[in-house]
Amino acid sequence: MAQTAEDIRLLNEKIQSAAGFIDKMESEIGRVIIGQHYMVSRLLIGLLSNGHVLLEGVPGLAKTLSIKSMAQAIHAKFARIQFTPDLLPADVIGTMIYNQQTHEFVVRKGPIFANFILADEINRAPAKVQSALLEAMQEKQVTIGETTHKLDEPFLVLATQNPIDQEGTYPLPEAQVDRFMLKVMIDYPSKQEEKLIIRQNVQGLKFPSVNQVVSVQEIIRARELVREIYMDEKIENYILDLVFATRNPEAYKLEKLKPLIAYGGSPRASINLALAAKANAFIHKRGYVIPEDVRNIVKDVMRHRIGLTYEAEAENVNVENVIDQVMAKVEVP
Questions:
Q1: For residue 181, is it within any domain?
Q2: Could you tell me which residues come within 8 angstroms of residue 212 by beta carbon, excluding any fewer than 6 positions away?
Q3: Which of 35, 138, 234, 293 could cysteine-pair with 333, CB 3.0–4.6 Å?
Q4: Distance from chain centroid for Cα 285
Q5: Are 163 and 78 in a shared domain?
């Protein structure tokens, strides 16, 4: 549906007033988390576009604390599941237990019945647990016994994996990795930020608690607004070109990439790139998407959706290099 300049102007005003809570959330989380603005903005994009987020970084970078703080700022239910090799699906989703008083089986719900699920070290759990989590992530429902239970909205899985310690880990299957909207690589804080972190921890002061600044209903309303944000056909074509260049690099004069890419981005890459770009526009209080919204988020959406060949490994080419080359070649509208 074509939108007039007046429609876009009205939408812009609507978004500006609705996105007021973003600054409040960022400052509230910032009281507890020093630095890590990139990670917090990616968590907000996942929250606003109803997409799960995979966080990768060494231990001690405030991944758990960030997610917990975000849940507190919304006053939503938070659950942390520590994934281990001996974890069972019932430990995640729940099980049927026998009630001796009533002589019948009743459902005992697992930690998955929360708004924010922190799946800590997700790659430590075996395939059965992964498949139980997969149903919850994709269908927003859980089957225990013969009954299917709907999960509460908003429902967001934020998973972490440690890139160094690979002993006793199970690589996530491609189908599951693809279910994550974003894969965010988390880096160390800067020297100045780490100095503040040391002071905060050494002084032994009580950590500030995060206050609720937005309601669950406002988040659900914001999600609806994100989908209304205007995206021009030129931006849609730009998204398609970025994704198609990873599938048919030779069509975009990227012949060098052909032997390096085993498989390109799936249609989920295109969908999530469009949604994440709209969420990014919302965070910047805009009612329309600009190419910079797409470029800002493209690595987080694509890095786990492109498979590289052994040849790429031999040539020390990583996914980031491939995305950089694609972005440099594809014409920006």
A1: yes
A2: 72, 73, 74, 75
A3: 234
A4: 20
A5: yes
Range of the domain at 151: 22-202+210-218
pLDDT band at residue 276, thresholds of 50, 70 and 90? very high
Q: 56 — phi, psi (to 5°)?
A: -120, 125
Q: Which two tokens stand for residue 233?
A: 């056909």
Backbone phi, then psi, for 213, in 5-degree steps?
A: -120, -10
How many Å apart are CA 15 and CA 225, to the nearest integer? Answer: 7
SS3 113: coil
Would you state the structure tokens that stand for residue 22, as one six-digit string? 């973003």
Does residue 154 have a cis peptide bond before it, meaning omega lies within 30 degrees of 0? yes
Q: Are 184 and 53 in contact (CB under 8 A)?
A: yes
The number of domains in the chain is: 2
Q: Which two tokens stand for residue 162?
A: 């440690």
In terms of C-beta density within 10 A (0-12 exposed, 13-18 middle, 19 or more buried), how is residue 282 classed?
buried
**This prediction's pTM:** 0.88
Q: What is the pLDDT of residue 124?
A: 84
